[in-house]
């Protein structure tokens, strides 16, 4: 009889909101293929951003995103209803809403530049953001929809 190993995966994080969710998700997929006896531990070393939102939602928005992600995964795994969860952030490009600053920071910055207004940036520059052009967004959605490997996964 083959002995099953137990694995503990530790992730220290400090202001890693942009990457921690995908690292934990990848570790979960990898460990699940290796053993059924595993744990994933994320140690938040006092982050001032939303690094712990994937495991400890701070608000209704984060909680609803996490709940939807888990529901899609359950339906994919247990009922064969194919799904992919894509977390697409800071999409910019043609036909974007630019009338106010409540949606998408890149579009608002473009609007301010077009209007020759000052672009105010707050903070010390330590927080990084990903930006995704709408054409690349459409390509990514189509590629994922056509990929069997993407089914049941959470992708950022």
Explain how this protein is built.
- The protein is built from 4 helices and 6 strands.
- With 156 residues, it is an alpha/beta fold.
- Helix 3 (105-114) links the parallel strand 4 (91-92) and strand 5 (132-133).
- The model has no long low-confidence stretch (mean pLDDT 78).
Assess the beta-strand content as a share of residues: 15-25%
Alpha-carbon Rg, integer: 19 Å
- Give the helices and strands as they follow along the chain: EHEHEEHEHE
Rounded average pLDDT:
78
Low-confidence stretches: none
The count of helical stretches stands at 4
The level of helicity is 25-40%
End-to-end CA span: 39 Å
Helix-strand category: alpha/beta
Using the alpha-carbon principal axes, give the shape.
globular
**Biggest β-sheet, characterized?**
2 strands, parallel
Instruction: Say how many strands there are.
Output: 6
Give a quick rundown of the structure:
With 156 residues, this protein is of the alpha/beta class. It has helices spanning 20-34, 60-79, 105-114, 134-145; strands at residues 6-13, 37-44, 85-86, 91-92, 132-133, 154-155.
């Amino acid at each position: 009889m083959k002995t099953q190993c137990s694995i503990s995966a530790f992730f220290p994080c400090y202001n890693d909101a942009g990457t921690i969710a995908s690292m934990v998700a990848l570790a979960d997929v990898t460990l699940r293929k290796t053993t059924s006896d595993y744990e994933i531990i994320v140690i938040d070393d006092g982050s001032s951003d939303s690094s712990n939102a994937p495991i400890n939602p701070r608000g209704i928005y984060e909680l609803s995103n996490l709940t939807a992600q888990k529901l899609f995964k359950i339906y994919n795994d247990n009922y064969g209803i194919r799904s992919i969860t894509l977390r697409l952030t800071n999409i910019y490009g043609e036909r974007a809403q630019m009338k106010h600053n409540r949606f998408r920071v890149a579009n608002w910055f473009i609007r301010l530049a077009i209007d020759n207004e000052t672009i105010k940036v707050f903070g010390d520059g330590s927080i990084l953001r990903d930006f995704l052009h709408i054409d690349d967004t459409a390509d990514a959605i189509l590629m994922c929809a056509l990929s069997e490997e993407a089914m049941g996964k959470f992708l950022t």
